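Q: What residues go here?
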């Protein structure tokens, strides 16, 4: 297990970072949002940037009017782009017993997986990120081919967070550690599957 320390950032730093990100998103400038995410992650660390700046900011956006929805999309897309750029200057190969990340079947909102991939790169580790909405048979095929030691499946809503599918999948691959991540998995998951509650938890456990 890796010990990951995530001391709180000063409130003034958090407020300033959020203001800069909101200003860029208001201008629909996804490139500026991405550049800010990379800058913040380099200065403050990826985990702290995600948990103390990005997650609260995303939850605060109203997203009710057409203009607000456009701003919300600009922010989330810019954050995703910044996360994907961070630590990606070198090519990462997935070794046997590596980590495979995928969105649950029909789950199209997987920003947290991009944060986890970036956090693993920050630790000097690669992973295989297969993106959103991966059907369960396709995930099983990928596991057979890539032979990871750990699989993380992201669910954003209860519609895609079907615990019985994750448990069935984990039983089909008894040599693989299988985790559910994201708010779509409600409550503890039945063994042999397990749940990751936060990015701090994930980076410490994987």
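A:
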């Amino acid at each position: 297990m890796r010990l990951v320390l995530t001391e709180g950032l000063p409130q003034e730093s958090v407020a300033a970072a959020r203001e800069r990100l909101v200003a860029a998103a208001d201008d629909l400038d996804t490139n500026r949002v991405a550049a800010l995410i990379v800058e913040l992650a380099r200065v403050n660390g990826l985990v702290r940037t995600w948990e103390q700046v990005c997650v609260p900011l995303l939850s605060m956006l109203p997203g009710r009017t057409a203009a607000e929805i456009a701003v919300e999309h600009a922010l989330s897309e810019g954050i995703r782009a910044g996360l994907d750029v961070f630590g990606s200057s070198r090519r990462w190969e997935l070794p046997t017993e590596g980590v495979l990340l995928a969105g649950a079947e029909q789950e199209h909102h997987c920003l947290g997986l991009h944060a986890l991939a970036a956090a693993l790169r920050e630790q000097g580790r690669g992973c295989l990120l297969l993106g959103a909405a991966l059907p369960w048979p396709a995930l099983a095929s990928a596991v057979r081919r890539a032979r990871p030691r750990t699989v993380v499946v992201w669910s954003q809503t209860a519609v895609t967070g079907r615990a019985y599918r994750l448990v069935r999948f984990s039983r089909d691959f008894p040599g693989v550690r299988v985790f559910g991540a994201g708010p779509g998995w409600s409550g503890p998951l039945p063994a042999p599957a397990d749940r990751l509650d936060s990015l701090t938890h994930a980076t410490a456990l994987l």
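A: Context that may help when evaluating the design: The longest strand covers residues 99-103. The beta strands are 99-103, 128-129, 150-154, 177-181, 194-196.
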